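Colleagues,

Please find the record for the two-part complex below.
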Amino acid sequence: MRPQASGRSRALTLSRALPLILALGLSSICFLEACSGPKTPTTALHGDDIRGVMPSLEFTLTGPSGATMTAADVRGKTVLLYFGYTHCPDVCPATLAKLSQALKRFGPAAAAVRVLFVSVDPKRDSGQALGSYASYFGPQVMGLTGTDDQLTALTKRYRVAYRRDAPDASGDYAVYHSSAVFVFDQDGSARLLATPAETSDELAEDLKAVIR
Amino acid sequence: MNPLHWLLPGEFSSSVMVCCTAAVIVFARGSRRVSGCAARTSRWRGVSFYLGITLIYVPLQTGFDYFAQHMFWIHRLQHLLLHHIGPFLVALSAPWSSMSRGLPVTWRDPVSRVVRSAPIRRLYGILQQPLIAFTLFVGLIFFWLWPSVHFRAMLSADEYKWMNWSMTLDGLLFWWLILDPRSRDEGAQIGFGIRVPIALFAMLPQLLIGAYLTFHATIIYDVYAVCGRLWPVNPITDQQIGGLITWIPACMMSVVGALIALRRWMYDDTRALAARNLAGIDAVLTASQLR
């Protein structure tokens, strides 16, 4: 009884091993191809389509005037959401400049756009300073911030990280934050994720499909 | 910051909480009920079970999860725990008999009726076919690491949950298939002879993908750069550490699994041999009595 049973399972092992090895080889080749091959764009987008992937626009933050702002205040506008802080040495000003440059291409239609620059450094970015910093990049750019709880809720909602470093002797500290720009349409639905690698031209091209 | 803060879930999931708590309560009740009698659950099985459940719970429901969402190598560590180590330890403890004893008396009948119902048994039978179990185990690793799939999973809260759940459940299925202490005659899905090659073969694709991630010169997963890393680390270093985790400890678990299956196979063979010898002696004795 027993030798028979083990003989059968040994036979199964061999006959199963061959298709198994084949399947393995094929799937790993596919994987390598997918990773190393030139990326063939499935859509004409430069950024990433996040329709149905990310939740719609929702937030509760403090606006430039010190009043509480929610998504209802920007409903009907195309919204570009970006996280940063005003003491940011490079990425934030570069990104904000790129956004405003891209928006200039839309002429008067750009009035239907709001760029929400959310500071994740509320301790240093008070309403007044944040407001003037943001408006420097264009009339559509708004500087917002909030309490740590509000910021945590919002960053978790959009799956982005932020962390403040410990201050040095002069009280200066770095803030680690995301570099993504989330684009929402007039209805507040998530549409696009723009990355720092895109140029302002590419961004403007992508935005054409969203701004109406 | 308050260290207790990190023990709280980043995103509370009632399903993880309910499943882990229920499993622990039921197992604890079941092992206590028989303590003292012969079928007592051994201490090592208890340690293995609780440790396994902890290693599933911690990556999902503490601050660990927040880090795993924002650093590639911590994400790989999370999947190592969820797919390899946690379920491995749970399967090693073979907790099912203790757990069924631990169920409240009124629940036992309905639960066993559901578990033994034809559709469940058929589904289980399909999932535990050697080739399918193997393909699922390795395929899920490849699937969730596919760049476009990975990108979406890290952005969509729903897909992220699906990813972690599927890895954990598949880990339980696979390691139970390999580590089931029973032989095939005693009710295990497959014989020991086929478990050893399955566990060892599972290494090969993991080795390939791990080495691929480790030695790739460019960034494959830009979602971590886009959504912010938690501390400044060279993205390539992040990817290399992630690759090494996918490669070495994951393959090690295959070796350990194969060795345990081998050990059980030898033990089972010795038992079978002893039984045959006994049967032989019986036959000789009977023959001599007849004479």
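Chain B has 14 helices and no strands.

Comments are welcome before we finalize the supplementary table.
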